[in-house]
Amino acid sequence: MTIELVDGKAGTAHISSEDKxxxxxxxxxxSDMVFDxxxxxxxxxGSANKATIGTGCASIQGLDWHITAAExxxxxxxxxxxxxxxxxxxxxxxxxKTGNENVELTVLKGSPNATAAADPKVPSxxxxxxxxxxxxxxxxxxxxxxxxxxxxxxxxxxxxxxxxVTPIRFTKLTSDPEFTISGYVVNxxxxxxxxxxxxxxxxxxxxxxxxxxxxxxxxxxxxFGVFVDSQQGSQMQNRLLYVVGSSVYFRPAYxxxxxxxxxxxxxxxxxVATV
Length: 275
Fold this sequence. Notes:
Triple-stranded beta-helix, 1 helix
């Protein structure tokens, strides 16, 4: 039979990790997830060769796992004059003979490059399709020569299941001091509010952009919203708050000179691929 009451008594052990993964994916999505628990898998560098991952709870392709005490992994030495990116992953493995499954932290080592580092390829095995190995990227460790940079998080923590609002984390990229931005995701739809005062006068061609911030979610499609400001005139509706990918911009639909100390305020909603 292909129909099964997974949570029902059957008189024999019958609930498998496959059952668990199918139901988890159906309820919460197919993407890997890190939940807002413990240290949320925070990464700290104890030395140039030791990265420590804090406590946390996560799911790889529907299979839940957690760390209840900090775990450490080894980062190989960098090379003088070369750049490299390593990726810390959760590695799922199923023994093909016994069927036993486990998860552990591992480091995928990148290739050294004299000019620009690239992430190593992360194997794309699908557990429900029979793969015995699968990888969940957690942190990028950048190396410049023998110097280890700040770890870069590759996931966005999920709030508790009953908390339907997930905050967006932003990185300010404008140098103007008067700038605030906030946003949330609800059921895959992001809403971002921004207020900005440009300190100096600037000029833009039609449809050119000036970047304001980056965010830890990615827009499925371009988004435009009216970015109202303190300037008079009939072109205000053509001065826009613009979102593409993981970046937030100011963009005019016409050639514009924006005087110093102009304030701008607006919001925009758009679907996101991951939260």
